[in-house]
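Sequence in, structure out. Go.
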Amino acid sequence: MRITSSHALVRCCLVAVLAALATASAQTEQTVTGTLAAVVDGAEVTLHTYATFVPEDAADGVTDERQRAILERVAGTEQHSATFTVMEETKLGSMVISPATVYVSVYARDESAGAASRAAFEVTFSLAPDTLELGPEEDVQVKYLPDGTSLDGYYALTEGALEIGSVEVVDATTLAITGSFAGLLSWQEGHEVVHDPADVLSVAATFELRRVVASGDALEIVSGD
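Output:
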């Protein structure tokens, strides 16, 4: 399993926006857009994806220049933690270097008041744009983040599989996706994911994402364009 550049960009965008919002004094409005229900090492966990409306004054009082720039860019918009990005086909002459691909990025967490844990699941995978069937296994990655955002230490699905139940085109910018994954999560402390049988957690999860929204923000926010 590997991280694609598209997955990394979308995650960088999401984490940057969440970090910036955490320091902002403005109140945000959140709507649940999907549910991920899992049993991790015997414990039941229910997490959600969200649409977060960023108010126009979100950047007011933020002194960090990068965070302020991010908030100014997304002020007045709705930011989603379940997104998809369409990458066009790239060719060299008549040779296809990489086919057109839909990359899906899901970040599910519990933002309810008084939540007992801020653990999160990060799930990424690709879809074929013509059939909307699940893409190759190397584009699939499932991470369990005990503290919600840090990748200094995390669990990754190193044995098992992800399956897609259905993909529905809701409108030109929205998909609805259901699916599941199960197997073993093993502890990671580096960028490269490897199986570690000495530290594993069993996992079985289902997800129902009612709004997976096209994201055009990732590249602009990360590159600063």
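Check: The first strand starts at residue 29 and ends at 40. The radius of gyration is 18 Å.
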